[in-house]
Design a protein that fits this description.
By secondary structure, the chain is of the alpha+beta class. The chain has one domain (2-276): lpxc deacetylase, domain 2 (lpxc deacetylase, domain 1). The chain has six helices and 19 strands. The chain has helices at residues 72-80, 103-112, 170-177, 186-194, 223-236, 254-276, and strands at 2-6, 10-15, 22-29, 36-40, 43-46, 52-54, 60-63, 66-68, 86-91, 114-120, 123-125, 130-134, 137-143, 148-155, 160-167, 183-185, 207-210, 213-214, 242-250. Strands 11, 12, 13, 14, 15 and 19 form a six-stranded mixed β-sheet that branches. Strands 2-3-9-4-5 form a five-stranded mixed β-sheet, with helices on one face. The longest helix is centred in the C-terminal third of the chain and has 23 residues, at 254-276. The mean pLDDT is 94.
Length: 277
């Protein structure tokens, strides 16, 4: 397969989930081998694991004094839709949360069109199993000729244990993953807002669970694990290339994802240096 970019620009306005401030973004076509890069106040931040500066409540990229938060949903949509090259110009400090999912991004990309470019797509593959584990959580990469994700999510009631297993391509992504919304517990949301966090969160852009169940209608009975897969794919975009791996995730989040991706990229750099020595 060849590299791809968008056939035209797409724009989004809204609020940031965590800051509650106005957030605007323009996602633009980019040339081959450009990758995905954010532009914030004239500072260009590559979407790679080495530029991650925080993973506490979202994936945050930074370079120097510039930061851009909650990048995982737009990166997930780019990866899921197979877009290799894009420039993301950000006005503000956070990507608009839209409805809490990646559906608006993926549908906009499909509407504007995705163009094939002359250069072949670069992939990130592995030759032997790799894993990172931490206190009952695990992220495992296995050699494969395709991208497949198996994810086990395990949360306190009323969510419980959920499981998702699928190969990933644009059709699967649009139908089965992109519409899954970010989520939280009512008591967590109240505590965060009391601390001045999650100021942009509402029932319009986050799936909230009260003690007796979800406060909104679920899009799937297992919407939570589907959103976890959405987030994982967004973090996998920080590999900088298309991941050609079979991935098993058990109760993972942004911190473990980024830790694993940084190590995979470091090992690859070391291998390249050893071959050229």
């Amino acid at each position: 397969m060849n590299q791809t970019t968008l056939a035209g620009a797409v724009h989004f306005d809204g609020v940031g989930l965590h800051t509650g401030t106005a957030a605007r973004v323009a996602i633009l076509p980019a040339p081959p081998d450009f990758g995905v890069q954010f532009v914030c106040n004239g500072v260009r931040i590559p979407a790679v694991a080495e530029c991650v500066v925080d993973t506490a409540r979202a994936t945050v990229l930074g370079l120097g004094s510039q930061r851009v938060s909650t990048v995982e949903h737009v990166l997930s949509a780019l990866l899921g839709m197979g877009v290799a090259n894009a420039e993301i110009v950000v006005d503000g400090s956070e990507i608009p949360i839209v409805d809490g999912s990646a559906e608006a991004f993926s549908e906009a990309f499909a509407d504007v069109g995705i163009e094939a470019q002359a250069q072949p797509r670069t992939t990130f593959s592995i030759v032997e199993p790799f894993e990172v584990r931490d206190e009952g959580r695990a992220l495992i990469f296995l050699p494969s000729q395709r991208l497949r994700v198996r994810f086990v999510a395990d949360f306190p009631a009323p969510i419980g244990v959920e499981y998702f297993d699928s190969t990933i391509d644009p059709l699967v992504y649009r139908r089965e993953i992109a519409p899954a919304r970010t989520f939280g517990y009512l008591h967590e949301v109240e505590a965060l807002r009391a601390r001045g966090l999650a100021q942009g969160g509402s029932l319009d852009n986050a799936l909230v669970f009260a003690p007796d169940g979800a406060m909104q209608e679920l899009r799937w009975p297992d919407e939570v694990v589907r959103h976890k897969v959405l987030d994982l794919l967004g973090d996998l975009a920080l590999l900088g290339r298309w991941p050609q791996c079979d991935i098993i995730a058990v109760k993972t989040g942004h911190e473990l994802h980024v830790r694993a991706i940084r190590e995979l990229r470091r090992r690859e750099r070391d291998a390249i240096a050893a071959r050229s020595a």
